[in-house]
Amino acid sequence: MARHGVKEHEFIYVADSALVTQENLTAMNDDFVFISRLPENFKACKELIRKAASGLWEDVGHLSHRIVKGKEIRARYRLQEESIELYGKRYRAVVVHSDAHDQRRQKRLDKAVKKDLATLSAQAAKLQRQEFFCRADAEAAATAFPEGALHRVTRVIEERPIYGRGRPRQNEPPAPKCIRYRVSITVAENQEAIAQLREEAGCFVLLTTMSAEKHCGKEILT
Q1: CA-CA distance, 63 to 219, in Å (whole number)?
Q2: Are strands 203-208 and 89-98 parallel, antiparallel or unpaired?
Q3: Backbone angles phi, psi at 84, to 5 degrees
Q4: N or C end of the chain, less CB within 10 A?
Q5: Quick check: helix, strand or coil at residue 104?
Q6: What is the mean pLDDT of residues 45-66?
Q7: Closest-CA residue to 139 (of 156, 116, 114)
Q8: What does the pLDDT look like over 76-118, one tens digit per residue?
Q9: What is the DSSP letter of 117?
């Protein structure tokens, strides 16, 4: 690039998240300037987004304007800056929220909530049809019932008395022959977990070695 008039440190290598591997980051020396996207499956990515969700955002407005299938797409962006350490080196991390990206993820989240409810409801219906001869078995079945990813599960053991044939003696309450047990399951949305995911929706993290003194977060996103 020097042969084409690009000075040292002025060439910025922009790549997708496939760049961010231990092998690649180790191979790049300190003079290598890049911008990439921190993979979503990295624990650090989830932690940065979760932390940013409750922090203070910098609104940088609209940075692009596109027409797709006759529809105007003009995302609005917010930023927060952090730093993280990966494989022994420290990098600059820019957490970005895009309202256009947010809309897509909100739809996926809505589908996930419905799917989680449908799965738990089907499992609850199956369990609630079962009858147990002792409380210990019912409690074990209740304990084994799975927790929902996006729902809270309440388990209640209900007793069902079984009476023998014939009428009870006069002035005596009927005595049950035995007791059977059932598990009653109530499924309700985990509002806190869903609200957290809604706040985090639309976020991604840019990883870079660009200097904060020379380039602000908006310039990195641009």
Answers
A1: 10
A2: antiparallel
A3: -135, 160
A4: N
A5: helix
A6: 85
A7: 156
A8: 899 999 999 999 999 999 999 988 766 777 888 899 999 999 9
A9: H
CA dist 107 and 122 (Å) reads 23
Quote the tokens at residue 76: 């609005």
Q: Does the pLDDT of residue 168 top 70, yes or no?
A: no
Whether the Cβ atoms of residue 164 and residue 177 lie closer than 8 Å to each other = yes
Give residue limits of the domains in the chain: 2-102+203-221, 105-165+176-196
- With beta carbons less than 8 A apart as the criterion, state whether 77 and 187 touch: no
pLDDT at residue 221 in the model: 93
Contacts of 98 (CB under 8 A, 6+ apart): 75, 76, 77, 202, 204
Residue matched to tokens 């300037």: 33
**47 close to 33: Cβ distance less than 8 angstroms:** no
